[in-house]
Design goal:
Blueprint lengths: L13 H18 L9 H24 L25 H17 L2 H30 L1 H9 L5
Helix pairs in contact: 1-3, 1-4, 2-3, 3-4, 4-5
């Protein structure tokens, strides 16, 4: 009998991680602003809208496939449709795009630092665990998918 499948072992939800880093950037921007360019609120809003659309598309594809999008749950199936044809992590890519949208809106260094920190946190604490889990869970099928589709874009 095999041990129960507890998923990839991601305990803190990735949106909480990213929102926390963005909140710290916002607080630092209020306390010690470091403007590095003009705020571009229109472009930033457009990027945020695109990010939310990508996230929504990816979640919808996962739900239709019977997969819970939460990374603390086991995967019932491997999803390769929709945005997963172009990126192995379209939801996390959407999170990064959303942070970039805020960076554009604010024109401040702190948001760009939050973007870099978000990428590092997602890549090391979430994606690495998920990829190890998926490789174990789906074996050669996941290896083939990983060979066809890039991690981010």
């Amino acid at each position: 009998m095999s041990p129960p499948d507890h998923g990839p072992g991601v305990r803190i939800p990735p949106p909480v991680m990213v929102a926390g880093l963005l909140a710290v950037a916002w607080l630092l921007r209020q306390a010690v602003p470091v403007p590095i360019g003009p705020p571009l609120p229109g472009l930033g809003a457009l990027v945020i809208f695109g990010a939310l659309a990508l996230i929504g598309w990816a979640v919808a594809v996962m739900v239709r496939a019977g997969v819970d999008p939460r990374p603390d749950k086991p995967d019932a199936a491997m999803v390769e449709a929709g945005p997963f044809r172009f990126s192995r992590n379209p939801i996390y890519l959407g999170f990064l795009l959303a942070v970039a949208g805020f960076a554009l809106r604010w024109g401040d260094l702190w948001a760009w630092i939050a973007l870099a920190a978000s990428h590092l946190v997602l890549d090391r604490l979430v994606v690495a665990k998920e990829e190890a889990y998926l490789a174990t869970r789906f074996g050669p099928a996941y290896d083939a998918y990983r060979g066809r589709v890039r991690r981010w874009v």
